[in-house]
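## Example pair
The file below holds two records. Each record gives the amino-acid sequence first, followed by its structure token line.
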Amino acid sequence: MDPKMLFCLPEGDALFNPLNTMFIQMACILVFSQFFYLFLKPCGQAGPVAQILAGIVLSLLTIIRKVHEFFLQKDSASYYIFFSFLLRTGFMFLIGLEIDLDFMKRNLKNSIVITLCSLVSSGIIWLPFLWFLINFIQIKDDFLTFYLAFLVTLSNTAAPVVIRSIIDWKLHTSEIGRLAISCGLFIEISNIFLYTVVVSFISGTMTGDIFLYSFATGVIILINRFLASWLPKRNPKEKYLSKAETLAFIILILIIALTIESSNLNSTVFVFFIGLMFPREGKTYRTLINRLSYPIHEFVLPVYFGYIGFRFSVNSLTKRHYLVLGMTVALSLLGKLLGVLCACSFLKIPRKYWLFLSTILSVKGHVGLVLLDSNLVYKKWFTPIVHDMFVASLVIMTLFSGIMTSLLLRTQEKSFAHKNTSLEFFDTKEELRVLTCVYGVRHARGSISLVSALSGCSPGVSPSPFTPYLMHLIPLPTKRKTELLYHELEEDAGNSNGGDDEFGTNEGLEINDSIDSFTKDRNIMIRQVKLVAQMENMHEEICNATEDLRVSIVLLPFHKHQRIDGKTTNDGEAFRHMNRKVLKQAQCSIGIFVDRNITGFHQLHGSDSVQHVVALFFGGPDDREALSLCKWLTNNSQIHLTVIQFVADDSKIEKLVGDAVTKENNEVFLEIVSKDQTEDETDRIFLEEFYNRFVTTGQVGFIEKRVSNGLQTLTILREIGEMYSLFVVGKNRGDCPMTSGMNDWEECPELGPVGDFLASSNMDVNSSVLVVQRHRHSFDSFVDE
């Protein structure tokens, strides 16, 4: 390539060279895509649809001679190929970094079955149509490569388009959304692998290159693992790696990708596996995610999708070719539909998701175009007519599938919405998604200990699906309308937002270190989220996050903390008001964690120490929710759980010990009670099921206490206050004789009478406390279904 062109130097009187015009073209795609997205977003369309339309509009503008000469200059194809390679390398590495490995492992069978059914059904449907195409286009040689290119290109699923669309629809945290992403990746990787193997077999020269580059990719993965652990040690006080250190990883990936592409092989799979095998913990991973996510999602992917539309051209097609084009699109959609429907039926996936998976997995992308344009020496049938027909069918299918999927989501919005199901109806085999909110490292350490307890670590027992999130809450300081200097302000006013030192990066650095220690010890990844907002609006952002992340329970820090001398200090009424607002508005269960990290609950990572936890059961939906959360504690060998049931003296409830019947396989039988059943009957059924599963098997201790009033309850709580490091209790039972009179000295009504007593600094209780409130409408919605 001419160096003058490479460095944007004009030739003669030319003001623009292909590199300059390419950047102008990218800018036009970004502007047009934003314009289309403003109109299409209210209709539920995803970003890729708007960006592909922007590329099509730019392509149609090239009909004008001046525009054509400007955008499609001599040697411009070389620039497009190189920059499309850079874009593809960047986002495939990021996809490998961001993919949910735990979910992929759990749903490996589902992804493989859907992938195989999709490929087989498409292959069978294309066989009779192939004979028609061969005669129609008059192909005389290389039938195998023609069928392979047709099958791989038109049965492929563009994983980046699927991922971007799923994120725009806010389904990336749902089961069906993550399954669609996994299937899209499996289908694309399988197609690339199939194409590469067949072409290498035909050529007879690529087999050795494949093994060589696979070995080189393994070496790069090992080098990345070494650098990921070594580089953070050079500057332990820095929150992120330096830009030069980040660039070292990018250069390594580009070198291996360029080398692979120079051998006429596709580097997509190799780059994806480099990202997939990158260490998921520590400063290095956070740095790459932080510095790659925004530019790739906001600039690289829109240009990539726009380039798909820009390739759209029907200049060489005649009217008779349009019929074949229509048949190609219809058979491609039909092959994907039949394959996915058969797979979903075999896997017993709910029927409401069948059509969604079929349409979203029909989108195509740039990888299909790359495979179509590569290894042309083995494609004697390749002509401009074939090329335009392939490209047009890819673009039409992507637009049609994207629009159909968005319309399907709009018509069946309730089917894909997050179900506010209570933990009471969850089994420990289902995924538990927890959002813990912290203001600083003091809250983070206690929350991480609680997350560690919920994650489970019993030897010989497969861990339950568990996805924890940690949200760092950073209140924005309010503007001070005063002429006083900072040191002249009152102490409460100066510290109302947690202090200036908490607003900086030191808190974030210590939180990161605590998370890294937990991840290294438990091998469980905590996903971090940062929330910066005004204190009066922070509850809205938290409630929105609970819906977007589809969490089962959100854990909030108590507005008081324990000092070194054991006394408690109020952090500010603003934090208390924020907790109250979340309790009223959150669309999931809520827990307020009173962390006494000095005298209370703290799980030491790497230690064999046993923590004694007690769940207090007075009855009611909140207590059932609290006890349901404790089911995940039973999987932890370092937690000894005891349930204390408080029963009124005048109650005629029989003991559960005599009536206990162990159910087959210790599975919880979830009986949906009718609305007219009494609360006491619901409590009895729930507690009996819990007893049969966990107490009779020796996993949980059980104690019954009979009391007649709140004073006797307080006496018992004082007696057991030093026996347990963590109390788990529901917020409110309503009118309950066992807690009568306890409201007289209540300080924090948001904790309920029992939680308020346990959290009070005036009582002789030094344990940590977790107060749980169930989402008020979760039970009603579950029964209605």
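Second record, same layout:
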Amino acid sequence: PVGGKMAASEAAGSEGSSALSPGGEEPPAAAAGPSAGFRLTAVRREPAVRLQHGVSGLEPLAWSEDHRVSVSTARSIAVLEQLSDIHSGGQELVIHRTAVPAPAGGCLLKVGSKKEVAECKEKFANSKDPTVSQTFMLDRVFNPEGKSLPPMRGFKYSSWSPLGCDANGRCLLAALTLDNRLTIHANLNRLQWVQLVDLTEIYGERLYETSYKLSKVETPRGELGDFSEFQRRHSMQTPVRMEWSGICTTQQVKHNNECRDVGSVLLAVLFENGNIAVWQFQLPFVGKESITSCNTIESGINSPSVLSWWEYEHNNRKMSGLIVGSAFGPVKILPVNLKAVKGYFTLRQPVVLWQEMDQLPVHSIKCIPLYHPYQKCSCSLVVAARGSYVFWCLLLISKAGLNVHNSHVTGLHSLPIVSMTADKQNGTVYTCSSDGKVRQLIPIFTDVALKFEHQLLKLSEVFGSVRTHGIAVSPCGAYLAVITTEGMTNGLHPVNKNYQVQFVTLKTFEEAAAQLLESSVQNLFRQVDLTDLVRWKILKDKHIPQFLQEALDKKIESSGATYFWRFKLFLLRILYQSMQKTPSEVMWRPSHEDTKVLISDSSGMGSTEDDHQEEGTSKQTSKHSLCEVSKGTDTDDPADETLAQSSDIGGHEPMEEKLLEIQARIEAVEMHLTREHMKRVLGEVYLHTWITENTSIPTRGVCDFLMSDEGYDDRTARVLIGHILKKMNKQTFPEHCSLCKEILPFTDRKQAVCSNGHIWLRCFLTYQSCQSLVYRRCLLHDSIARHPTPEDPEWIKRLLQGPCTFCDSPVF
């Protein structure tokens, strides 16, 4: 299956040539039957999300690392966020939908002063030379407003950054409109997307200041009145694609000459003339002030169509480059010099991966890091969609230099590939054509290079007759998102097109559970697609499989990591929801029957429906009873609410006992996780306080809370508390209620209640009472946290940046 081999010295970085030898192509997919070990089982998942507008651009679908799906449409980018909801008993996917609207005004690239540009446009439009006037009038880059032509609204491409780039530690969205405006957006409050920066405008200003020269030694070009110069200035700032790099570390020198490591990320923007602008952003990215630098690279590729980052790690050294593909066929890697980036290296010269001008345009490129089991080293698999074929290239560094093996996979589709996506965890590649056929390519390493196992997935067997416009695989490979419209019926095309985003499963429950148990990430939020498969299985079967319980208990006994405790809490919460009785009618709908209600004198927060469903005398009293029910179930734990709703008069006592038993287990796991986090907080207090100091953390209250339970015997906690109490020197530093100045005792991990009955919720990250009207909440509404203040020291700000201690979700 290996078409050619090229060795280029890593030190010299010399450019080599590679060509397919006769018979160097992979056998057709039909000839390579799938082995039984790689059988693909796809199951449809509801709901299907209908789009308000038709899709636009190439590769309209993208799935971020924080489980958000972006869909480029003619009026906006629809963003679908997948949640693994712990408060709902429904078996469907839980999706939170937002949108990034397209700008109302058109984008005019800055090619000169406004007066000069207006004069040149009038000159070219009225030119007697038809090659000038017609080219100018019909080019939408020169005329984005279009006049008599339809407006250029919509999006050409969107790209997600790595996790941890915005102020909340989530992904940024780079969006490219059809009229060539490149912007970066962030979703800071979950309900609204905010534009942080317009890179097209900034890049145009930079070019204007340098007279549209990339270097100082470059000779000046012609005037703007020359049509070729007018075209050149537009071409050098018309984006084609953009891609984010991984997060890298840069060194920043402080005022006292100390160096500190600062995270940064790179955004590569490919332009129409073949140039690549590499933007460097400091993290967290908050706007224009976060831009560190912008460098332009000349690729030398004519008619560039796509790019991707090549990031390779060899002997603890990270190497980087940019893979650029052309509409004429060639593919090559360009070196990227990253100054002041810790531990980063690059190639000295470009490396050609495919040099034939065979007129097969490169549509999409994916670079997948893998481990070579025979060579015992890391390697990179580069796959590119070219027409109806898949070009692949295996890159690995050995003592001989950079080894390149390349070939093509043929016989996959009868139509051109319209979309390609890859699961970067195991290297599986998915391609699709417009006829609804999806191919799964699984790389299998050989002694020399690799081969592919092929599998065909017919979406018509899952969704019926459909046409496909794009696919994207979830971060952990559990789901495949597909954009579909109606296919042909009885040989006839549909009258109307309804664009939908539909989901199919790519893994079984057993595979998802095994991956969660052996995960190196140990973060539930970053594996939402896997936890959703587990959630779906438990809600259907109404029990946790025995093998999963036993395996999880063994993990907890052997390692004791809090990740496995959080996984156990997740399973118990879903089991609790699966046993809830579905309400026969909507709870908020008022009853039209005259019922009698006896308001029982129940004490505290423990009232249930049994206390409020007795017979009464009037509708007014019935409404009052309904309010009492909502008050009685408004407890801190959401499970209490569902427990109250599920109680049934005169029966189902075994079910109620089961629910109470599960509730007790949930409380026990939550208490364990709370104690573990309290130990971490106390450890930070001990490390960062030298003398008796009144921090915002209620240190004495946390210590007393941990020591109050006689059944809790943790020697580490007792030793730590002893050291802290000795350092505090009998000082207590109690919290006081801001309304009545009374002392707030630390008797509850979730809330603080003063002697006058004022209730304040506690921050789950620092356990301080949140005595303000504004606070943050975790993504699944599991816990609340306060905002950092300017007076907080750095170590408390780091604590407040942490995720939820129960579900790993970020905090907003």
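Notes on the second record: The chain has a mean pLDDT of 84. DSSP finds 15 helices and 37 strands in the chain.
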